[in-house]
Design a protein that fits this description.
Keywords: Membrane, Transmembrane, Transmembrane helix. The protein is mainly alpha-helical. The chain has two domains: 254 residues, no CATH class; 110 residues, no CATH class. It contains 18 helices and six strands. Helix 10 packs antiparallel against helix 15 and helix 14 crosses helix 15. The protein is globular, with a radius of gyration of 25 Å.
């Protein structure tokens, strides 16, 4: 019966088209991730993709190691030397690109200096140009200092409680310093584009599983199905199992292929670097590595998919409508985006299931929750809340469909 349910889903022309759409999405997102890595040659011209990654790796690996005060001083010295070159001071764009090509090896460390010395809410690409070698050693201290000043500023004085402010400061202070650095652009590209592919996978899979329960009703075969010996027990379990296996197989096949394609093209080095070693994660209060960030992104996406699509299947079993079921993933994903500008809803929005599909983004946000005097970020709550709801939902789906009345 399980194989029969899978065959019913996959034999439809619309389902095959949906799978082609998912494969196309996989290839397009992988291409965007790979070509997001660019390299400027010594003549000022630029390339992107695999060849760019190879050249960029050679430059960045020269700076592999811990970002100590000596390394930071060296970055200031190298940056100043490039700034004093005729190419940098020229009004010609090609000359400027030539000058930039000499900064690519330490560009990530340069950005960390910009972030630390620009202030918490500000960013100035040229801030490093005015930081002295004596000042730059304060980089890690500036990160904590900037956070503290921002938390106690009039601008957000009522946004966080005192306990939440102290929690953030303590987490910032827990970051292991000096940070370890090496080429890690493969992991950064993965993290940047993974949420997009996860959402597309959920939407396509949602379309596929939405018809599992309403199928007999749409074919007017419900009277035969529910009057059969196993229709209300094994048949229902087979439908639930088919939906679960289809979700699992499509999700992990898609995401593992994406991971393999991108890391094979851009390189898998740097997974051990802290998330704070790149511009997107500098402010994160989660002290984890890029590899751990991506692992949480994959697991979170899977947990989110199971909940959203299981809820979709429950709705289809109750309403007997594939249209309503297939529309649910769109509602779950896009309604929070519309409401995101309403500040009073920020706490609630931070715990909606769509957040699980973009954990790499959540890790870089300040969504905090206080339970019984314990302050924590949104990530651990999301990883507990929705797997529990998913497990509780399965018996509900079984009960609703097995008790369906024949009309």
């Amino acid at each position: 019966m399980f194989c029969y349910e899978l065959k019913k889903v996959l034999s439809k022309v619309s389902s095959r088209i949906a799978l082609v759409v998912l494969l196309t999405a996989l290839l397009i997102v992988s291409f965007l991730a790979i070509t997001s890595v660019s390299y400027t040659k010594s003549d000022g011209s630029s390339v992107s993709g695999t060849s760019a990654a190879d050249s960029l790796r050679q430059e960045k690996e020269k700076w592999t190691g811990y970002i100590t005060e000596d390394v930071l001083r060296q970055v200031i010295t190298e940056n100043t030397a490039v700034n004093q070159s005729p190419e940098y001071q020229s009004d010609n764009v090609t000359d400027n690109n030539i000058a930039y090509s000499r900064k690519q090896g330490f560009s990530d460390i340069r950005e960390l200096i910009n972030m630390a010395f620009s202030g918490f809410q500000d960013y100035d690409y040229y801030r490093v140009d005015s930081v002295t070698a004596d000042e730059v050693g304060e980089l890690y201290g500036k990160r904590v200092e900037n956070l503290r000043e921002w938390l106690y500023s009039d601008e957000i004085s009522d946004t966080f409680t005192e306990s939440e402010k102290q929690y953030l400061i303590q987490e910032y202070e827990k970051m292991d310093t000096p940070l370890y650095y090496t080429y890690a652009d493969g992991w950064k590209a993965l993290l940047e584009y993974a949420p997009t592919l996860i959402m597309l996978t959920v939407l396509v899979t949602g379309f596929l599983v939405s018809g599992i329960f309403p199928g007999e009703f749409s074919l007017k075969a419900d009277s035969v199905y529910f009057s059969s010996r196993y229709g209300r027990n094994r048949g229902v379990r087979a439908k639930i199992a088919a939906g679960f296996c289809l979700q699992t197989a499509l999700y992990w096949t898609t995401m593992l292929l994406y991971t393999g394609i991108v890391l094979f093209s851009l390189g898998a080095e740097g997974g051990e670097c802290a998330v704070q070693t790149w511009l997107g994660g500098w402010k994160s209060f989660y002290n984890i590595t890029l590899f751990q960030d991506y692992a949480l992104t994959l697991i979170g996406g899977y947990a989110g998919e199971l909940f959203i699509l299981s809820l979709s299947m429950l709705i289809s079993a109750k309403t007997r409508s594939a249209v309503l079921a297939s529309a649910l993933p769109f509602i779950v994903l896009f309604v929070p985006s519309i409401l995101s500008s309403v500040n009073v809803l920020s706490k609630l929005l931070g715990l909606l299931p769509d957040q699980l599909l973009q954990i790499s983004t959540v890790i870089n946000t300040f969504n905090l929750y206080q339970i019984g005097g314990i302050v924590m970020g949104a990530v651990p709550l999301l990883f507990v809340l929705y797997p529990v709801l998913f497990v509780l939902m399965l018996p509900g789906t079984y009960f609703v469909y097995s008790k369906a009345e024949i009309k």
